[in-house]
Amino acid sequence: MSWHDFIFSNQSKLRTRRHLLYWLLWWVYIVFTVFYTMNVSGGFSHFQPGLIELGFLSYSLLVIVKSFLLLLTHLFFCYTIIYFLVPNYLSKKNYWYLVSGVLILCTLIIPVVYFLYSLVYPFIDTLFGLHAVKSKTIAWASVDAGLLNAIKVSLIAVAITLLKRWWIRQKEKEQLEREKISTEVQ
What we know:
The protein has 186 residues and is mostly helical. It has helices at residues 3-8, 12-35, 51-54, 56-90, 95-127, 138-185. The radius of gyration is 22 Å and the shape is elongated. The two termini are 35 Å apart.
């Protein structure tokens, strides 16, 4: 299997692998950019002061659970854009509906991520035996980790989707030109 087949194939098996690889890479990005700079008590720093008393295994499971929940919000945001908004509005040149849909999604993701940071993450912390400390930066974390990262991942996915469509159309045009030349020769 070549990289070309992996990227441009519409086979279900390859498409599933491609999407899993994409989301796995995004999950790693979330872990290192969002949760690496957050210490156990919810504050931000450049190191993890709670790693020694918490233990690496417990902390890594905590980060996996929290980052997976954040990843699910990004997944919903991204797939709504690339499988609903882009085909229905960008392809048909209904730009106002496209922009409106993206703005609605943007306004919905902030309260969802705020809910994660204010209620779900403290609950998960208590399950791990941690004392959840209310942070004053929850509102900004909701915008940063939720909205800004969702926009990043969605822009990358839309760019890949549009590039793939362009590539397939170019190949179809080349095939039609070859068929036209062969019929003219015959």
